[in-house]
Amino acid sequence: AGCGKEPSSYMWIYILLGNMLRGVGETPITPLGISYLDDFAKEENVPVYVACLHTIAMMGPMFGFLLGSLCAKLYVDIGFVDPGSISITPQDSRWVGAWWLGFLIAGTTNFLSAIPFCFLPKSLKKPEGANNNKSSRGLLENMVATKKKFSPENPKPRNNRMYFTFLCCSLLQFSSFIGFLTYKPKYMEQQYGQSTSKSNFLIGVTSLPPVGIGIFLGGLIMKKYKMGIIGATKFSFTMSFLSYCIGLLHFFVGCDNYAVAGMTVSYE
């Protein structure tokens, strides 16, 4: 009879608002951080610095999966119930891990790491070796000067196809990556009989570090060969094409489905 009751808890609202605030805080890091590096670093060092930024950003999900693996081993009501009274184990399908504990640990860590930013100066001096024309202010001044000098009576609309193509490519890449992180743990649990804790641990250790290493090596290669926008585009296309070709091999790897009564086999 107790299972027939409707859920009356509205705690999901706190989770929703918390994730909204987290998204607001995370959004400026990538665009403003990359713009800052592009303005105040030497031109040949920008690819390496950006690669370092993205590599460190990949370490966050890796540690997140490891933290999730640890929290999944703890019972959801840890600290409120006697551990000796729990009669099920993490291998039991009824087990629910302490998913909420990761939010508290990650939130506290984010808050503490944000404190040093309050002591940064409002503006920094531009290094001598940096390209002044690449800075946001320099670009703006050049655009204004050019516009005044060559101001046509009937200006033509700008057709920035490369920018649009880059946005579409980024959307496709992030969509596939998010799908991978969302469903692969469940696939490992169902197909290979692994626990939630072990699935998160394996993905955090095996999947994300190679991506971070690849981003860092890509930055070093771009710095060594001093690639421009066209060279970087060709390099990105070649690496992406090879990645997709290797990814097609997943279609030839699989396991037999489990025997599920009423679905794959009869009840008898």
From TrEMBL:
One GO biological process term is:
sodium-independent organic anion transport
Q: Where does it reside? A: Cell membrane; Membrane
Highest rank taxon of the organism: Eukaryota
**Which Gene3D superfamilies does the UniProt record give?**
MFS general substrate transporter like domains
Q: What's its membrane topology?
A: Multi-pass membrane protein
Alphabetically sorted, this entry's keywords are: Disulfide bond, Ion transport, Membrane, Transmembrane, Transmembrane helix, Transport
Name one cellular component (GO) term: basolateral plasma membrane
Main location per the UniProt record = membrane
Q: Which InterPro entries match?
A: MFS_trans_sf, OATP
An example of a GO molecular function for this protein is:
sodium-independent organic anion transmembrane transporter activity
Residue intervals passing through the bilayer: 48-76, 96-120, 162-181, 201-222, 234-253
By its UniProt entry, which PANTHER family does this protein fall under? Answer: ORGANIC ANION TRANSPORTER (PTHR11388), SOLUTE CARRIER ORGANIC ANION TRANSPORTER FAMILY MEMBER 1B3 (PTHR11388:SF89)
Q: Which family does it belong to?
A: Belongs to the organo anion transporter (TC 2.A.60) family.
Please identify the protein, giving its name as recorded: Solute carrier organic anion transporter family member
Per UniProt, what is the name of the gene that codes for the protein in this document? Slco1c1_1
